[in-house]
Amino acid sequence: MNKIKGVGWLAVAVTVSCVGSGCVNSKRSGMNAASSDSRSLVVELLVLDLSSCGRCIGTDRSIETSVRELRPILAKTGVELRFRKTIVQTEAQAVALRFQSSPTVRINGRDVPIEFRESRCGDCAGLLRGIPCAVDCRVWVWQGREYTEAPKGLIVDAILRAYPTAFEDRPPVPSEPFDLPENLKRFFAAREAAW
């Protein structure tokens, strides 16, 4: 029996697919995250960059490691864990995705962090090719500490806590208006000017 310290014993079948970063599982291509014939947990990573931002790269690595560690744990409940990445390129895409901060991690459409914090990110400001713009990115709070990259333990804990949602109907997409945070409006305006 495999255990992850402090998490307990849970069965999860795992399939990893990437969307928006160059690799797409053909079985998932064109499918909505909420639609599936089997029970599933969909872990989504939404980022501004996966080439140079330490926060985004580190969070991506934590998710990939977490998924890999959950794979051998009781793959007998019929729940498929999927991993999807999206690099948010434009303000319109950010609004459509209801993107509030980079990196964002959602499981079955629900944002992972309990507490929302941000701090200055020099890596993302560096994406703007010399145009001065302060960029705030997500800070993760877990077990009383702050992290600039989502720690693996936080991701594993979030996936296991979300496990019961694999057996529920998916909530409808929110219909209330979404206002892109000023921080991201400035970033996308500066990015557009840099291109």
Task: Describe the protein's architecture and organization.
- The protein is built from 5 helices and 8 strands; from the N terminus they run E-E-H-E-H-E-E-E-H-E-E-H-H.
- By secondary structure, the chain is an alpha/beta fold.
- A 5-stranded mixed sheet has the order 1-3-2-4-5, with helices on one face. The chain has a 3-stranded antiparallel sheet with strand order 6-7-8, with no helix packed on it.
Task: Describe the structure concisely for a colleague.
This protein has five helices and eight strands, in the order ββαβαβββαββαα.
Name the descriptors.
single chain; 195 residues; alpha/beta; Glutaredoxin; 5-stranded mixed β-sheet; 3-stranded antiparallel β-sheet; 5 helices
